[in-house]
Design a protein that fits this description.
Length: about 140
C-alpha cells in the first residue's frame, strides 16, 4: 500500500524557449503533462504586456481551435481574418471571479494585451513542440 496521501510537484517553465526569443515570459509560463498525453499550459502576463501578434494554421490539433481560459484579470483581443475582416477589440474580464473561455479558430490573426495582470490556461490535446509550434508571425499572414 502506498503511504503517500499526496504529492507536491513544481511545474517546469519555458524560460529557455522564451529566452531564445529574447523574452523573459518563460519565467511566467508553465506546463503540466497529463497521463493521457494531453497538456495544460499556464501563463501569467503582466499589465500592459502585449503578446500574440500571430496566427495558427490548425496543423496542431491543440490550435484547431486554440482554447484560451482566462482565470484572473482582464485581457483584450483583436482579430483579423484571412480575408481581412477585423473583429474587436473584445475584452475578457475574469476580475469578478468568473473565468472566461475563448476559442480562437485557425487562420485568425490575434493580438492580445493584458489590461491587468492576468492568469490563463491553454488546454492542449498534444504536448507543445517548440520545433513545430503551429504559431506564425504577422509577416506570414496575408489578407
Amino acid at each position: 500500500m502506498d503511504d503517500a496521501l499526496f504529492s507536491l510537484d513544481s511545474l517546469p517553465n519555458f524560460a529557455e524557449y522564451y529566452r531564445k526569443q529574447g523574452s523573459d515570459r518563460g519565467e511566467r509560463t508553465w506546463k503540466y503533462d497529463l497521463p493521457d498525453g494531453k497538456q495544460i499550459m499556464l501563463f501569467r502576463r503582466l499589465k500592459g504586456e502585449p503578446f500574440g501578434a500571430h496566427f495558427h494554421k490548425g496543423e496542431d490539433p491543440s490550435k484547431n481551435p486554440e482554447i484560451f481560459l482566462l482565470l484572473e484579470g482582464k485581457i483584450q483581443f483583436s482579430f483579423v481574418s484571412k480575408e481581412g475582416k477585423k473583429a474587436g477589440p473584445i475584452v475578457l474580464d475574469a476580475t469578478s471571479g468568473k473565468p472566461q473561455l475563448l476559442r480562437i479558430q485557425p487562420w485568425a490573426f490575434h493580438f492580445v494585451e493584458a489590461l491587468t495582470d492576468v492568469l490563463f490556461i491553454e488546454y492542449r490535446l498534444t504536448p507543445f513542440d517548440p520545433e513545430h509550434p503551429d504559431t506564425f508571425p504577422a509577416k506570414d499572414f496575408s489578407c
